[in-house]
Every structure is written in structure tokens, then in C-alpha cells.
Amino acid sequence: MKRSALLCFLLTVAGTMSAFTERAYSLDLSGMSPIGNVRKVVKISDGILVDCDDDSQVKLQVLAPDLVRVRAGFKKAIPGKDHSWAIARTSWNSVPTKVSESNDTVVLETSELRVVVTRSPLRIAFYDAKTGRAINRDSQPMRYNSATRAVAAVKSLGFEEHFYGLGEKAARLDKRREAFQMWSSDTPGYTSATDPIYQSIPFYIGHSMDREKSGEWRGSAYGIFFDNSYRSRFDLGSTDPENVVFQADGGEMNYYFFYGPSMKKVVNRYTELTGRMPMPPKWALGHQQSRYSYGNEQQIKDVVERYREEKIPLDVIHFDIHYMDGYRDFTWNRDRFPDPKGLMAWLKERGVKPVTIIDPGVKYEPGGNYSVYNEGTRQNFFLKKTNGETYVGKVWPGDSVFVDYTLPEAAKWWGDLHKPLLDTGVAGIWNDMNEHADFESRDGDKWKDVVNYDNGENSKHDKMRNLFALLECKSTYEGLTRLRPDERPYIITRSGYAGIQRYATMWTGDSPSTWSAMELSIPMFQTLGLCGQPFVGSDCGGYQGKSNGELLTRWYQIGFLSPFFRNHHAVDFNDQEPWRFGKRYADIIRKHVQLRYKLMPYLYTVLAEAHETGIPWFRPLILEYQNDYDVLNIDDEFLVGENLLIAPVVTQGATSRDVYLPQGEWYEFGTDKKHQGSQWISVKAPLETVPMFVKAGSILPGGPALEYMSQATNESISYDVYPDKAGNASGNLYEDDGVTRAYLKGGFKKSALNFGQGKLIATASGAKVEEVPSASVRIFGR
Ligand code: GLC
CA 636 to CA 520: how far, in whole Å? Predict the structure, then answer.
């Protein structure tokens, strides 16, 4: 079949598409015109502006030697107005760039990238400036449809090209030959067949394997961030084995091209552009318990007391929707919770932080006494349709209205509404249902005519839906920061768009209590990490359905090393706190939760790295070993930081599994037993254990056994040293007060740890060199 015929894909017509469908999109580019040929090229301060013979315009801007922004206006000039809610960094230093023209091409060259624009037809190709290797090429000119306003880019797909990313997708790690769409959707009980789900992060990493003359493989990565919030589709060789297509139903062709070749460099740059996670309070790394819902004060107290009796560490308790009066945001149900302040004080005495849910659906109550509704209405803060009517949807409170968070005064008002909750002693906010969940319009059809102020652009739902959660969390984050300027805000979100990491941590929503959902959570966390969101996790035990002791235990063996670590379960199902299936399971779960707390100095250091560089905590092997062909598809193992590898059991009844160890040598965690890397080994994994390995040459700082983060203790940091063949090891330790924002102004201590000749030396940032007393050092493998 000819390529053009192949590209006459079938289009799933947007109107017939339900919000979440079986994953099989087909893209039809046949109705889309190719952009015209190059007519004229003008050099601009940071790149080139190309006029096309169909009056389209293309702009290539060099933001960094490895970062180029591509924009196109179809049949029109590129609009002067340039605003994105996703972008954190808008001003870049000028980059030495050579522009040269020939009869056929225009070439932009930085120290790292050579970008070639072919004049006719207009196609853009990216090459490695040093090696000349082709990284990514348009196989066709960009396309547009003047009637529907759809825009698309078509790239050629390499034989050894693999894809990672696209944010929160219920899918395996490597997305080669699959297709996805971005349309944030409330998808309870989602499975690997469901797409889209809650978040929309239109960023992916392409990774190509090349064989060197020596026969060795070399992996090179690039990234593409298609910053377009309309419903978009990414077809990574699913419909057409020769092409990758990204397409949106409207908005601009506007993408950022990142070049590695290291995958870490791509993630680092992507998070420089869209922002990095601020440090959350340290208690947020503790174990969290939730239930839809602990329905009254006594139930909350019972759970917390039982935790303390069981000696299972606990830092956070969540208040799901029943704490509110008729699900009205910022109220308390006084029958169930007669004395919130007293309860918060009771929790405080026990070292437990309360987190309350706040949904964006505000109860629609004209003529009533609900001040949030009345005030929001009076000030015109709720979203309206083009005909001026306030949009009324259906969520937990029944008829509900929604704030236009793009209105600066409305966003501030919403943020300030949190004051009474904080004054009562609430420590964090859980922003749920923010896809624009609406029980009567799950795909947003009824929302079509809803208008957002959007910086004066008066944008409709087609542009704003995917941005809603980002805007809500921004307003919440800024509110909490204003209200408690000295403390780090803690917000958890379900939905989000690129950049959400600046405001909120996330969890993966209502996954079923099944083995396959648990297994899927691993590539989901890994992918989210690659897309800028390091603070991720799922509901341990699964949210919906009946879990059991074995499933819960195995889920904890993943959860205890994921950043967000919460047990949560839905209202109609069985209880699943760690002790609910008996002592056997509670004992194993306790051991793992305790281990998390003991590993906290290492974990906190890894989290600080994510804050500083964007490199995630929960890593796929490919991120560290991108030249290793064997890890391209491994997503049932993960790394925590660089040095800790975990191979959880994801199959019911299994008591052993095969584990791939990448290059180097690997110790079985906490033992002297070593294995050679670059091979598969078979390991025993009875329910009591999860296979864990530590890379030879590393040091894991550890802490005291705690029941909650702020518990007083005399114990200090200890160091587990796993020397390499030469007897050396190294590591890092990051420390700060765990609560305030002083770390942003240098209020932290970073120590480089170096072990050699039997001695461990810690060199703090201020160059203070200390030999660590041997009593706090454990050396393995001697
Ligand atoms: C949504 C959330 C879930 C919560 C429930 C009730 O389904 O995803 O975590 O328990 O709403 O608030």
C-alpha cells in the first residue's frame, strides 16, 4: 500500500466518541491540507520566521542548544498573543545559532542540534549537530483543516524507536504502536483498555536504539511537548506503521522539541520549561490512610488508635466527602463532626495530619444560606455559558456550579476560602473530581458553550477542559501559600495538565482492586515521573472492588516505595486497613511500612533531587540504562533513585519471579549476597518479602524507626555501605527542616558521601568534611 493511502486513516469522529473508550483511535488526515511551501525566510532574534505560499507562517525559536519551539499559523500569521498555563519559564538566554539557506533548505544550527527545514514540501528535521544522526523528521508537512480547525504533525517512525510518556495513561511503559488521546475524564474502575483517563499531559519521549560499529547498542532520546490543551491524539505507529501523528481538534500547532541524547537531560529540560515540584512537607512522605468515608469523629479516632496499637506507622488521615454538610465545600457536617477543632487537636497530639477533600463542584443553592454559593454568585465567579446562564452540572452535592479559576479575583477568592479549614488545623487539601467530573456529562458535551475568561481570550470548554485541574490547583496552592507563608502547601490532585507538578502531587484515581490494576500502577508511576510529576502513587489495595490479604500485601510492597503512599477504599466495598485480613498480612505490611520510614533519609534525598532536577523518584530502568536493549520494555521492576531496584510480585499466588539486573553488581538488599548484573536471575519471593537490590558502589543513608515523621528520637542517621569491586561507594544526603519554605533560600544541607579504605567521609555543601563515626556505618559484602 502506498504511504498516502496508508495515511488515509479512519477518523473517529469527535461527536461519536464517548469520554473514555476502548483504546483504538484511528486518525484521518485525509481531510487536512498540508501547510504550503516556504516562500520567504526572515531571521529573528532567536530563530527564523517562515512565510508560506498559502499564507501560513512557521516560527522556529531556539530556547536552548537542545530546545527548539515550533509554532505554525495555518493560512494566517502566528498570533502575537502567546500565553500558556503550562509554561513556567518564558524567558531564555540567547543561544549562538547559525542560520544558513540553500535552494532547497533553511538550516538552523546550535552546538547540539541541526534543524533542517525543507522548502518544498515544508518539512522539519532534527539532527544531532555533532554526529549528524537523524533524531526526528517530519514525514509530511504539518496539516490543518480550515473547517474543523484541527492541526496535526506527522513524523516518521523509526524501526528501533520506542515511546515513553503521555503522562497518566493506563498503559504499559513503552507505547510504541499504540494510540492515545488527551481529554481529561472521570473514569472510575479504569483498566488498561480505558483511555483517556484523568490527566492530560501531551509530552512524550522518543528513544531510538542504534547499533554502533562495535556491535554495542546506543540509545538516544528526544522529547516532544505538544502544548495544546484541546482534545488531542497521539498515534505512535498504531494506525500507520511508518508514522507518528499528533493532532489536536483546535488551537495552535505549538510544540517544543527537546534533545538528549540522554533521557535524563530531556526530563530535566522539560521540567525546566514546565516547572518542578516544590518540596512537600516531609510528613506527606509518611503512610496515609483514607476511606470513602470515615463517617464521623469516632471512626477517625478508632482508626488512628488502632494504627498506634498495631504499631504501623501513620502520618496522614484523609477526610473524604462525608465530613461536609451535604457535600458543600468548606463546611463541616456537625452531626458527624461536632467539634472539628477538637478533633484536629486530638490528631495533632498523636502526630497525625488531617487532609480534607475539596471538590470543584459547589452546591447550587439559590436563595439558601450557603455562603460560598451566594458569594461566588454575587461576584460572578461561576462559569457561564455563552448565553449568560451559569452552567449547572451534577456532582456529589447534586446540582453544582464551578468557579472560573482563570479569573484572577475568583482564583484568589477560592484560595482564601481555605482559611477556616487551616485555622481548624487541616494540614493538606485533596482536590478530587477536577476533570470537570459531571455525572450528567462525562464527556463534557453539555459543557460545549461554557466560557472561561482565560486571559481575556474568552475560551470555551474545548480548550479549557484539560486545563481545569491545573487552574484549580494553582488557585489552591497560591491560597495555601498566602494563608500559611511559612509552610509548604500539600495538595493532592486527580486531574492535571502539563505543569501540574508546580502545584500538586497526584494519585492515580479509582483503580479497581485487581492484580492487573496493581501491575499497571508500576508503568503508570514510571511514566508520570518521566513527564515531570515525581510525587505519584495509587490507592494501596485498589479503590474499588473487594481486595484481600494477599493483594493488599503485594500492593503495599509497591506502595511502600512510591512517593504518595495511601491506603484508600470506596464506600460500598470491604474495609482494607492493614489489619483487616488478619495478623499474617498485618505483620508483613507493618514490616514494609516500617522499612519505608527507616529508608526516609535516602527517600527524602531522592525527592530533593526530583525537586531540583526533575529526575523522578520512581524510575523505569530505561531512564538509568538507556543503552541496554533488554530494559526497553521492563515495567514490572522499578528503581527508587539510582541505586535501589525493586522487583515486586504482581501475580497472585507467585512465590518467586525472574528479575533483570542491569549492568554492574547488585546486592540483595541488606545482605552480603551479590549478583552480577546484565542478566536475568530467578529469586524467591514468598509473600513476606519483595525482592530488592542495591547497586554495588552505593551508600543508603537510613533513619530511626518512627511511627510518624515528627516523632522525637535520639537516633541519628546511619549509613549502609554497599562497596563496589574496588571497595568504594558513594551517595548523597539531603536534609532540611521538612516543614518550612526556608529550603528555597538555601535552608538545607547537602552532603556528598564517600566511602573508601574502610572510612566514610561526609562532605557538606559548605565543604565541611566529617568522618562518620564507624558505629553508624554498616558495611556489606566484606
Ligand atoms: C472519587 C475519588 C475517590 C473518592 C470519591 C468520593 O471517586 O476518586 O478517591 O473517594 O470520589 O469522594
Answer: 8
Three-state SS for 695?
A: strand
58-109 pLDDT, tens digit each: 999 999 999 999 999 999 999 999 999 999 999 999 999 999 999 999 999 9
Task: Kindly report the length of the chain.
Answer: 782
Residues touching ligand 1 (Cβ under 6 Å) are 188, 292, 320-321, 357, 432, 494, 509-510, 568
| Residue 435 annotated to the active site | yes
Residue listed under C-alpha cell 504550503: 36
- Using most ligand atoms within 8 A of CB, pick from 289, 329, 357, 359 the residue to mutate for ligand 1: 357
Whether 432 is a known active-site residue: answer: yes
- Is position 297 annotated as part of the catalytic site? no
Pick the residue whose CA is nearest to atom 7 on ligand 1: 510
566 and 539 in contact (C-beta within 8 Å)?
Answer: yes
CB atoms within 10 A of CB 463: 19
Q: In what order do the strands lie in the sheet with 505-506?
A: 505-506, 491-493, 428-431, 353-358, 316-319, 288-289, 566-567, 539-540
Residue at grid coordinates 542491569: 662
Catalytic residue among 432, 462, 550, 736: 432
**pLDDT tens for residues 754-776?**
999 999 999 997 666 788 888 89
Atom of ligand 1 nearest to the CA of 293: 10
| 3-state DSSP of 364-423 | CCCCCCCHHHHHHHHCCCECEECCCCECCEEECCEEEECECCCCHHHHHHHHHCCHHHHH
Which of 292, 394, 544 should be mutated for ligand 1, with most atoms under 8 A from CB? 292
Using DSSP's 3-state secondary structure scheme, residue 731 falls into strand
The closest residue, in CA terms, to atom 4 on ligand 1 is: 292
